[in-house]
Write a structure and sequence with these properties.
The chain is an alpha/beta fold. It is built from 13 helices and 11 strands. The chain has helices at 5-12, 15-24, 31-38, 42-54, 80-95, 97-128, 132-137, 142-153, 170-175, 189-199, 239-248, 268-273, 282-291, and strands spanning 29-30, 58-63, 66-71, 159-164, 179-186, 207-211, 224-230, 250-261, 295-296, 300-302, 309-315. Strands 4, 5, 6, 7, 8, 9, 10 and 11 form an 8-stranded mixed sheet that branches.
């Protein structure tokens, strides 16, 4: 990726575009979210976004009927001009009190938008908890996916296992013979009640059920040898932050496994089943894992009708690295 100074400065010479870039410094955003935060029409915001993309400051990605936007300048290996532009914008927010206040308000507005969506998703889980296993079968059959996951995890011990978004506890039950200890976390109290009933027969290892948010895990750094997301990450408004949080709690040499849908066009899963993302491409997952400081392995595909499931695994570096928290929204 190359940038030129003249288009860069022209693209940044607008308050709205500066606000968009500061929002993108934290995470990928849907274009509709940008329009809501900025209080402007989507066509007007799209024009601003086109200018940023033409200047190489951002890039768009279509997912079903939604378009997502990400910054190109804050990446770890960004070229010098990109990195300098990212630093300039960060310094501007630190030094310009008016700009800082505007950016803080934008982030609060974004947080409220996403909180409303999360409340809708929580209500969905509460309504459908009792039939969750049957709902999941609408997407793909369990048996071939579980067999592929077991193969991907190999024959060794999983050590201390964290099952993020445990739902009814099915995966904790499946992996219990391979784990030294298990903590299963879910945000939904209704799901945890079902998981508790399902897992109460397990004698060793017992499963510790914890209510918590996958974007703010209530665990210390480097607490787990294995971390699992099973059909969970597509509910994340900001999957990059969720994976970074998982990487934080994974021990050096530990492993993270993501079982989720391959990218698809089933738009009804957003409206009917609270999906925030229509699956993931291999390129997206590679970028997410790499940005979280992980070393990805080759993905595994489990074709299904109508949707394909992918299993992505990655390893945490043997030497612990410092994982800075993303800016709070």
């Amino acid at each position: 990726m190359t940038m030129q100074i003249d288009p860069t400065l022209r693209a940044l010479a607008d308050p709205t575009r500066l606000r968009i870039m500061r929002l993108l410094s934290a995470m990928e955003l849907a274009v509709g979210e940008c329009a809501q935060v900025l209080g402007q029409s989507q066509p007007r915001v799209s024009r601003h976004i086109r200018i940023l993309c033409d200047a190489g400051l951002a890039e768009r990605r279509k997912e079903g009927s939604w378009v997502f936007l990400r910054s190109t300048i804050g990446q770890a290996l960004a070229p010098p001009l990109c990195a300098a532009t990212a630093r300039l914008l960060a310094i501007a927010e630190q030094e310009d009190a008016g700009f800082a206040a505007r950016c803080a308000e934008d982030r609060r507005h974004l947080a409220s938008i996403r909180a409303a969506r999360e409340q809708q998703a929580a209500a969905y889980f509460a309504r459908h908890a009792a039939m969750w296993d049957q709902i999941r079968l609408l997407h793909s059959p369990d048996e071939p996916v579980e067999a592929a996951l077991l193969a991907a995890l190999g024959d060794g011990s999983l050590g201390a296992l964290l099952d993020i978004g445990t739902g009814t506890g099915r995966m904790a039950e499946l992996l219990a013979p391979r784990a030294a200890s298990i903590i299963a976390v879910d945000k939904s109290p209704e799901m945890l009640r079902l998981a508790r009933a399902r897992l109460q027969h397990l004698a060793a290892p017992p499963v510790d059920l914890v209510q918590g948010d996958f974007a703010a895990l209530p665990f210390a750094d480097a607490s787990f040898d294995s971390v699992l997301f099973h059909q969970v990450l597509h509910f994340a408004q900001a999957p990059e932050l969720v994976l970074a949080e998982a990487a934080r709690v994974t021990r050096p040499g530990g492993r993270i496994a993501v079982v989720d849908l391959a990218a698809h066009e089933r738009e009804e899963l957003r409206s009917q089943h609270a999906h925030a993302r229509l699956g993931f491409t291999d390129e997206q997952m590679l970028a997410l894992m790499t940005s979280a400081g992980l070393t990805p392995a080759l993905p595994i595909a489990v074709p299904g009708q109508p949707l394909t499931v992918k299993i992505w695994t990655a390893e945490s570096p043997q030497t612990a690295i410092s994982k800075a928290k993303a800016p709070s929204l």
